Amino acid sequence: MKKNKNIKNIMLAFALVAGLTSCKKWLDVNVDKDNPNNQSVLVENRLPWIQHFYMYSAGVANFRTAAQAGVYYSNSANTNSVTTTWKPAAGLTTTPYQTFFVSVSSNLTDMYDMAKSKGAYHYMAAANVFHALGFMQMLDLYGEMPYTDATYGNPSPKYDKGRTIYNGCMAKLNEAISLLNKTQEVGASALASGDMMHKGNVDKWIKLCWGLKARYMLKLSKKSDLYNADSILYCLARGPQSNADNAILPGLNNSMVVDYLIGDPVVTNGNFNYAAYGNNQRISQFYYNLLTNMRGSGIVDPRMTKIVPAMMTNVKLDGNGRVQSYDWTRSIGVDSYGPSTRLLKSTATSIALPSFAKANTNITYTIANAADRATFIADLAAKGKTYTVSGNNVTVTYKAGSMYINSTNYILAGDTTYVNLRSNAIATSGIAAQPESNVNWYANVDAFTAGVVGSTGSFQTRPVSDFEVLTYHEMCFIEAEVQMRKGATGPAHLAYKRGVEAHINMMQAKLTEWQGVYGTTNPDMKPMSQSDITNYLASAAVAQNAGDLTMRDIMLQKYVAMGCSLENWNDMRRFNYSAGNIGGFGVVYPGYDRGPLFTGTAELTGGAKTDPKYWMRRWRLPATLELQYNSANALAVNPNVNQLFIWSLPVWWDCATDQEYESYLK
């Protein structure tokens, strides 16, 4: 928390940048535009930057927890530590914490107080909403956190336990609902002037508050004394009722501006900034299987081609070195939980990035093992590759226009089948000629010039993707789960079906919006086939009647729909992953387990799936920001904060009782 000393100055600078876009805001003779200060920053200039940096903090949390939950594989050391080895790295935990406290929470009290002094009740409410969003995220990740002492500039704030943080966030939402129902004072800034999310639509803000209350109340599903199904349903009835009510922050690709705190594009989608900014991420086999074989049906989900990236293959170039013909090849998933055959042949992080062959390129592989050599040659023949064999050496000619792995290690040669998730933004692609209307990833300038696409990207993680704060489809799946817990399978089934349809419809609307701009270079940014949608919804991949519906059906469809979201990890913890010991619901996430490359025995100390400490339950606090500069306060509430096994200790809402929770704080 040492960096909190500079918090107000940092965000003041950002707020002033926004303010300068509208000179009329500085016409007040009582404001000295040449000497701005914290009190002169307009609430309508603070809010968009709070929204932006919340999106950034949440985007990092979404990506890294989605990797923990099995959505993604990564070959970067930090993230691979939770996708594959389950030996979580210390460097994984800093960014969501840092960006929230430095850029969001530090401004919440100031914006609230300024809005209060002006009678701008809706901005007070907005401060409360982002307080709840941010601090609940901190609770989800770290368990114990500076809270009651956190937003007042104290560089060494005391810590609070989970119940205090949870109750505080719920109280903020209750007050926000009350404030949003008030008429602002005359002269108060209209919410629309600073709101990127709902453009000032107060009714949608109110629905967001109720929806967040439902999401947060669901976290208490292990607590028989606090979980209240009817209260959740009450909140859902007042939350989002259709996709028109979705709370989203826009992602854009129309600016070269990057922020000076982090160096990432200012206008892009928060998920993109981590999941698809670099080349390290791939779709996991676990997620891929749900998109191609839900309920063991063998049915391919129409959303699959919009979520799983593709690349150009079998490329032929014309005389000018431009693409003349090609095929699209869809990625397969990287297996970390099952046999993990490919990773075991090398290392956990060994999935390699392809290069572009501007001209015919020969690579010679020395393969001493006869069986491996025969398999390698058979694969080359099946793919129509040009090759020669001399003893143990196999020389492959990668034709001009090909994507290939630039390594003589034959084990890596097939890694082009794992298409990375990267998309390009004009601010960071390094390809000056690539226009705003093209967000494909190209291996380099030569590949772009030739027109050879290295990845089409993924629906949630492009720079122009919407950032989903709260959605109607999530509300439907929450209702389905709550009704299922009540034993009301009929209403549960209706809500489940609405959830699947709502997510598909949300995607289809965005794809339709994209197609005229981005679809000309990217087929994955065009709408799905309506017949494919109709057939899927009527297929065995979707439970067709209430009698067949299981909790697994509900949660796996929710998992697909949420994708790059912290809520998938939260849900997995509530159901104890694949332990199968919650209620009578059986194994809800089959196939999710420690894989053969597991090395996290010091972090995850449980010896059986039914032991809570078998699984990743929280993040360790940031080593420098808290364990070095604020360790006394951290240790005062949890003496285990410095221990590696902290990763396996459940947070407050993940415990059935306070007694269980307190036992982890000894």
From TrEMBL:
<protein>
    <submittedName>
        <fullName>SusD/RagB family nutrient-binding outer membrane lipoprotein</fullName>
    </submittedName>
</protein>
<dbReference type="InterPro" id="IPR011990">
    <property type="entry name" value="TPR-like_helical_dom_sf"/>
</dbReference>
<dbReference type="InterPro" id="IPR041662">
    <property type="entry name" value="SusD-like_2"/>
</dbReference>
<keyword id="KW-0449">Lipoprotein</keyword>
<dbReference type="Pfam" id="PF12771">
    <property type="entry name" value="SusD-like_2"/>
</dbReference>
